[in-house]
Amino acid sequence: MSDAHPEKTFMDIPFGLNWGSFHNFVKDPKKERDIDVLLTFSESETTSTGPFRRITCELFNALQEKYGHKYNFVHKYGIPRSEYLELMQRAKISLNAVVQHGPYNYRAIESINSGAVLFQIRTQHSVEPQQPELFFEEGKEIEFFDETDFESKILNYLENPELIEQVRENAHHRIQSDYSYTRQYSTLVQQFIELSQTQIPTTLNNRPSPAKSRMHRALYLFHIDADFKFSHIITELTTLAEELKRPLASILLPVLPRLLKTLDAEAVYNFLQDDKITKAFKSSMLKGIEYTYSQIPQPDDIDDWNYLMAKAAQGDIDKNEATLLLERVRNTSLIFDEKTMLFSAHNPETFNGNLDHAEVQLKNYNFLLAGGNKTKRHETLQEYMAYCLEAIGAASMVEKAA
Q1: How far is CA 398 from CA 111, 116, 195, 348, 393, in A?
Q2: Domain segments of the chain as ranges
Q3: Which of 28, 83, 177, 233 might form a disulfide with 79, Cβ 3.0–4.6 angstroms?
Q4: Which CATH class is domain 35-179?
Q5: pTM of the model
Q6: In what side-by-side order are the strands of the sheet with 117-121?
């Protein structure tokens, strides 16, 4: 159960069930290993990774400079997978750093399955505690480190080969016994069976149940069989506009550009039966967005934000407009309800690279965690709006400087 969503049941589906990382690909576990410490990622630093890859690389470089004459340190990344796996199978110790998505990653499992001892830096991301100790036992199956104990722990293992052998065997046994595909899928199926016997399986059908509000219903239709459902989407949005007593253009502005790219555009035009909007969008996506906005008699701050974001996604970024609106968003308590529709920055790359994908995902995650707390949900929405305005403002400054 979730504190944010007490009415829903959440299942913990282990990361990696859709990949082959849990498979055992150790060819020869007793093979002589000539790489003492292996590092297979760069020092790149993003919102998603935090500083931990950089810190690990710095610790590795310092240790290599100090003990490189005695031990074999190898640092390679951006290499073919075949070479990557070959290096893993030669390593005694494999270093790892996880990002904000969870307490372990593919490299963690691949290191263990290759027969190396996994050394993972302790991380603390802003999303929630990582808690890797829930999956592996420190000192018995893997090792954690930070700047204070990295050198001493590495040297302890390298100077005690029997310790390397014991820990890697413990870790490999844990993977095979608790995290094998057979065990994971058997557990998953059993959980489905138990849920179906204790509650109405509304979320366990072939498709998710339609939400109660018309906005959620429209989004539900958008994500399934889009080409077939287009008329129902527009019908729901039209009805929503009538319910809210808002112009249809206000409802269409944040979603119509994406609908036209995803669905059958001609079918959408035929259903709208608006020659002017059809002519505008056929001329260009930007002209269509401008015309749709012009049909809103009295745009509010949310309409203005949707307009700016829709234009920014087409490469039309106005720093002055963004700055003025940012001031209002920061200093005004905007009115949101469950039917409020905001432009979705689903493809941050369209904003000249100034929207950080991980940051956008993090704000989406915080919105979900807010659950029924309306105050927290509204704060998160407003933070998302402000972040996007700051980002497109930065984009326009970069363009003008260039």
Answers
A1: 41, 45, 53, 16, 9
A2: 35-179, 209-299, 313-402
A3: 83
A4: alpha beta
A5: 0.55
A6: 73-75, 35-39, 91-96, 117-121, 143-145
